Amino acid sequence: MSTDERVYPIEVAGVRRELPLMQVKPGLRIAVLNILGDTELAQAAAAALAQKLDAVDYAVLVTAEAKSIPLICALAIAVEKPYVVLRKTHKPYMGDSLRAETLSITTGKPQTLYLDEKDRALISGKRIALIDDVISTGSTLQAMRLLMSKAGAEVSAEAAILTEGERSQWEHTYALGHLPLFTG
C-alpha cells in the first residue's frame, strides 16, 4: 500500500498507475482500475497479454462492455483476431440475442449480458478467449462462459489485466498482476 491510504500503486507491463480505493460495502474496499481513455496502459497490457496467449488455440476474443473495450480492441489488433463485445442492454438491431445474468462487484447490482445475433454467428463452433480488465468475484466471467456455451463456442482461455481477491481462485487465468482486497 502507498503512504496515501486512498490509492493503491500498481505496475502493469512497465506502466505505473495509482488506483483509487473504493468502498463496495462496509469494511471492504477495492482498488479500481479504469482503462477507459488510458491508451498507454491499454496498449501495454494488450501487448503483454498477447504474449501470454501466444500458445493458446483460439479464434475469437470476447469481453463484456464497457471498461475492457480499449483492452480488447488493442489485443485484437496485436493478435490479428476478431473480437466480440457482450452488451449490457439489448437493442432492437441485435436480433435474436442470447442473454445471461451477472452481479458485478463494482456496480453491486444484477446485470444482464447480451450476445448479438450477428456475433453469435461469428463465435458458434469456435474456440474463444474471454478477456476482462479485472476479474474479481468471477460473476461476469461466469455469465460470459454461460453465453459462450449457449452459443456453441468453447472457452479455451480466460485472461485479464488483473485478478483480485483470493489468488488461488485465478491460477488458471492469464493475468498481468493481482490486487488484494482491502478490509477493515
Question: Can you give a write-up of this model?
Answer:
The chain is α/β, with parallel strands linked by helices and 184 residues long. The protein has one domain: Rossmann fold. β4, α2 and β5 (83-86) form a beta-alpha-beta unit. It is built from 4 helices and 12 strands; from the N terminus they run βββαβαβββαβαββββ. Strands 4, 5, 8, 9, 10 and 11 form a 6-stranded parallel β-sheet that branches. It is 24% helix and 37% strand. The longest helix is centred in the N-terminal third of the chain and has 14 residues, at 39-52. The two termini are 14 Å apart.
Radius of gyration: 16 Å
- How many alpha or pi helices? 4
Work out the count of structural domains. Answer: 1
Structural class: alpha/beta
Give the topology string: H per helix, E per strand: EEEHEHEEEHEHEEEE
Instruction: Report the count of strand segments.
Output: 12
Show the helix and strand layout:
Elements: E1 7-12, E2 15-25, E3 28-31, H1 39-52, E4 60-64, H2 69-79, E5 83-86, E6 98-103, E7 110-115, H3 117-123, E8 127-135, H4 139-150, E9 154-164, E10 174-175, E11 178-179, E12 182-183
Parallel strand pairs: 4-5, 4-8, 8-9, 9-10, 9-11
Antiparallel strand pairs: 1-2, 2-3, 3-12, 6-7
Helix pairs in contact: 1-2
